[in-house]
Amino acid sequence: MSAAPEAPNALAPDSGSAESSAVSQPSRSSRTTVLAGVAGVLIAALVVGVGWLGWGHLQDRAAEQARADAVQAATAQATAMLSYNFNEVDQQLAAAGDGLTGDFKGDYDKLVRETIAPGAKEKKITVEATVQAGSVVSATKDDVVVLLYVNQVTTSAEMPDAATTGSRVRMEMHKEGDRWLTGRLTPV
After folding, report:
1. 144: buried, middle or exposed (CB in 10 Å: 19+, 13-18, 0-12)?
2. Measured distance CA(149)–CA(134) in Å, rounded
3. What predicted TM-score, i.e. pTM, was given to this entire model?
4. Residue 157 near residue 124, CB atoms below 8 Å
5. Is 7 helix (H, G, I), strand (E, B) or coil?
6. Nearest to 105 by CA among 93, 88, 117, 116
7. pLDDT tens for each residue of 99-120
8. Burial of 155: CB neighbours in 10 Å, binned 0-12, 13-18, 19+
């Protein structure tokens, strides 16, 4: 009888396979380094993402606060600009002009001086304006466009019975420092 070929011993190291497994499988320390790098990148991405979301939230809050503040300022400014008593028209409308910006302030002062004040004094006109409602058309943290619904009650020497008129005005509000100023008032 001839000797049977010897079966390879599964426990005996194979010189070729030991070298190939050392090359194909990374060592434990290199896997740890890769995992730490991946974790670091994920944490950095998370921090950037949270920062970006936080910045967006702050911008949204600033715009929302601007909306509320601008509507309140536009309401007060429209009331001041559109209300006057013929006895005090110069002082009242001059005070209202302090809440205006740039060219609009010059145009408003000229209109008051040349038309509104002389007419109010001559015809003894008194106007009381009240804002019934207001809404934001568009807003950023420093510029807001507001639409106001205004009622005006007018009396004069010629018409002592009060006449009420309703109107809509579009106001462009601009923040300068901590004040909201009117850049334009346009009847709609």
Report:
1. buried
2. 6
3. 0.69
4. yes
5. coil
6. 93
7. 999 899 999 999 999 999 999 9
8. middle
